[in-house]
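User: I'll paste a sequence; please echo it back and then give the predicted structure.

Assistant: Echoing your sequence first, then the prediction.
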Amino acid sequence: MSLSFERVNFLYPGARAGIFDATLSIERGELVAVIGASGSGKTTLLRLLAGFLKPDSGRVLIDGRDVGAEPPEARHLGVVFQSYALFPHMRLWENVAYPLRVRGVAREERERRALDMLRRVGMGGRENDLPASLSGGQQQRVALARALVFEPRGLLLDEPLSALDASLRMEMRDEILRVQRGAGVAALLVTHDQEEALSIADKVVVMSKGRLAQIGAPRDLYEAPATAEIAAFVGQSNLWPGVVVAPGLIEAPIGRLACVTKGRAVGEAVIALARPERLAPTDDTGGSNVFCGESVADRYLGPVRRVDLKVARGVVRLETHLRGAVRCVRIPPESIRLLDADPRLFPPE
């Protein structure tokens, strides 16, 4: 039960927005998350797979079969939307059983399967309740049960948790992963929540202007972004334009940085990436890669603080659990990754 795109293109009529040359494969039991800025094409990708849109070219495949011309009901995919879309007048088991009802399954069988799915999503014993009696998280569990009850070929999740509060989102994303793993289906998750994507996905797709800019495991995407644009989008980051001035050394707005420059020529323009959590406050002003400056922002986030230090012609952002004043910071050379220069982020002076 695999889901695939092969060089898919789609353009909205009268617009320049769409999907361009998309190739992606989601295997049985795999969960792939799609993230990107608003308008990047995340939901369009899901709608092409669901059958709500038809590609202009390329192939949409389910289990290796081209379904680009098939309507949504023929694709046998479960879909969970941001709005739970439960029937308010139906009991929970009837809501879950509805996909079986439209497929002609006998009442006794569809009730049995609906009750089983409600138990699997932690809603056993509530089968005769109405949706209005449930919290948002409980309604989303029922929506998930409904999407899986007819044993779909794949599961599509369109911003399923965005209407929930932060603590409930954390609980529900783990629940979605547990149920999806138990069902063993290929799943595509569209989300604006990067933490959600990084924490539960096997692969993450970053979309930019209708293109799949990078596909990779969550750790690879965070630790080794392909471009400075992706580094700026995924997580918090320090990005400094610089020039290689010697092997193992670059000149940046904050000063000279020791780092690995292998494969970079002296005089080459680069962008240095350093994640804030890998930097450390220090009272020792000696040694390389220690910079002191003025705190221009100090944000208390509970477990950590995010501090911005104005250093020379730049800013260094770090995260720390320490509560004292921060005046100096050490940037470990191994925490710096050099990326190609990008004039869109840092135009030449």
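The longest helix spans residues 166-183. Residues 72 and 120 are 26 Å apart (CA to CA).
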